[in-house]
Amino acid sequence: MANSPSKPKKPRRPKTAVVLLSGGLDSATALYWAKARGYALEAVSFHYGQRHDREIKSAIRLARRAGARHHESRLPLLGPAAASALTDSRQRLPNLPLKKIGQGGIPTTYVPARNTMFLAAALSLADAIGAEAIVIGANVLDYSGYPDCRPAFLKAFEKVARLGTKSGAEGRRIRILAPLLKLDKAGIVRLARRLGVPLELTWSCYNGTKTVCGRCDSCKLRAKGFSDVGVPDPAL
Ligand code: ZN
Questions:
Q1: What is the per-residue pLDDT across 80-94, written as a single tens digit (0 to 9) for each?
Q2: How far is the CA of 170 from the centre of ligand 1 (A)?
């Protein structure tokens, strides 16, 4: 009908994203990526039996800075700690030359089905609160050995989200978004700087020592990322 007064629009609630936040460079960048897209943020960090909880401290600070609600969850692995170098402090952490990182099959830092467990917990939260997306900082390039970072796995999990939730059954899609999937570390550092990630708050080291070790694979990959971009790492 012409000239009918338009109804006052109901303010739409912002879309919500559940973000897996470990406290490292990648997940922090994923958090700020979702923030830049206007999502209301629900960040989730897990105590899964990792060697140290230093990274959780970083996650809490990052969530606060980004204006995200932060959830801490205990999700201990049922298998023996020895199944991963990240859960067994008696094991030596890999300390490979840079060129060999990611070349030798599945690294010892692989944690059995970790992303499946994290995504399942995030999906439960997303379904409960009606979130539109789950954001994960998974990345295939620098650490190609983790099966649960593969694009096909994330695609398959999106199907799980559609088939196994109330949201999915009622036609509300929960997307699994992995904005860093195809970026190398330098690309992630560039994106993080563009998004204004407070990089000084992130923690990537596999060790929970007072300062980063600078020797583990994670430290090395991170250092290479910053040096490729030609900027100092503000966390050092
Ligand atoms: Zn380290």
A1: 888 888 888 888 877
A2: 45
